Amino acid sequence: MCFSNARRFAICIALVMSFAQAAFAADILIGDAKSQPESLTVAPDGVLIVGSASTPLIYKVRSGSTTAEKFIDASTEGPGTFFFGVLADASTNTLWACQLTPVPGSTPARRHTALRSFDLSTGAPKIRWDLPGDNTICNDFSIGPDKALYISDTANGKIYRLPAGASTAELYLEHRTLVGIDGITFLDGTLYVNNVFTNNLYRIPVGANGKPGQPVDIWMDQPVKGPDGMRAANGKLFLAENGSGKITALTIHGDKASVTVLKEGLKTPTAVEPAGDTLWIAERGAGKAVSMPMPK
Questions:
Q1: Could you tell me which residues come within 8 angstroms of residue 130 by beta carbon, excluding any fewer than 6 positions away?
Q2: What is the pLDDT of residues 143-168, one digit of tens each?
Q3: What is the CATH classification number for the domain harbouring 113?
Q4: pLDDT, tens digit (0-9, with 9 covering 90-100), for 221-256
Q5: CA dihedral in degrees (55, 95, 70, 263; nearest 10)?
Q6: Which is it for the CA torsion 19, 289, 239, 188, positive or negative?
Q7: Closest CA to 264 of 241, 245, 237, 243
Q8: Number of folded domains that form the chain
Q9: 265 in a structural domain
Q10: Are 262 and 234 in contact (CB under 8 A)?
Q11: Is 275 contained in some domain?
């Protein structure tokens, strides 16, 4: 029937494509609508791992499932403990996580935060490194070409570096423009970070001595609002804008970037994670992990 004439054939193809895209997209409630999924990552076996910014839990969703299961429980760490960034490192079978715990009775409110790692398969704890300072925000991280883990501290404008195999991180860069640093990722071997306070994107240059230099402001051809989680794939940066409800793709041209809106109308998206032909999104305001086909 679909092949009786060209018009019917075109309609048939369109219907097939729309059904495929509908089946492709996922809309998964993480615990409940108040779970506030801040970050997510995908393990090599397709398991989706999601941290909660309102509970001391990290969840996992098995491949093909729409049910979130408790994976990590840090309720013994103190009242109000929650998680920001999570990142699966398949090469070491490790799940990295930023754990935040409020300081009781502090005015103004302060938090002590720790970089945690867990066995990616079992959830068994590995290392813990407490960020130095009385008020810190371990937010997100990225694995560099040198296999080191680079960690953003939003409150203090710092980037830390944890060498491969080490259990203690070192200060990599501290700069006033990085107060508000949030998303951090490598694209083609170059480190990029964003600032959720000022809505800026920066490239971190590295000198001949291997030391980082002053952050370079990347001019974007349209404004972004509340840049949050950021990951790289297919030669682009993918960005969650928590202030505008958008997911955008950034194409870098030297010190400039062109911005393409991929999805909008989301409730406080805070993270993106490319995984094969899928782009996963943490929709914090809805308590969901949602997905869309990966742009080519």
A1: 112, 113, 114, 115
A2: 999 999 999 999 999 999 999 999 99
A3: 2.120.10.30
A4: 999 999 999 999 999 999 999 999 999 999 999 999
A5: 70
A6: negative
A7: 245
A8: 1
A9: yes
A10: no
A11: yes
CA distances to 220, 224, 240 from 250, in Å: 8, 11, 11
CA distance 112 to 195: 21
Q: End-to-end alpha-carbon separation of the chain, Å?
A: 32
CA dist 124 → 77, 100, 120, 154 (Å):
15, 19, 8, 27
Task: Record the tokens describing residue 226, joined without a space.
Answer: 């509340």
Token pair of 176 as six digits: 């006033």
Residue 16 in any domain: the answer is no
On whether the pTM is more than 0.85, the answer is yes
Angle of CA points 204, 210, 214, to nearest 5°? 30
Q: Could you tell me which residues come within 8 angstroms of residue 124 by beta carbon, excluding any fewer than 6 positions away?
A: 118
**Collapsed DSSP state (helix, strand, coil) of residue 130:** strand
Q: Pick the closest to residue 195 from 172, 213, 220 (CA basis).
A: 220
| Beta strands at 256-263 and 219-220: parallel, antiparallel or unpaired | parallel
- On the question of a cis peptide bond just before residue 37, with omega within 30 degrees of 0, the verdict is no
Residue 79: φ, ψ to 5°: -60, 135
DSSP of 171-224: EEEE-GGGTTEEEEEEETTEEEEEETTTTEEEEE-B-TTS-B-PPEEPEESS--
DSSP annotation of 206 reads B
Tell me the chain's radius of gyration from C-alpha atoms.
Answer: 20
Is residue 259 in a domain?
yes
Instruction: Quote helix, strand, coil % in the chain, to nearest 5.
Output: 10, 50, 40
Tokens of 12: 């048939």
Q: Domain limits at 123?
A: 25-293
The rounded distance, in Å, linking the Cα atoms of 144 and 165 is: 14
Both tokens of 135, joined, read 């008020």
Q: Which amino acid is at 140?
A: D
Edge-first strand listing for the sheet containing 57-61:
37-42, 48-52, 57-61, 69-73
Alpha-carbon distance 217 to 100, whole Å? 29
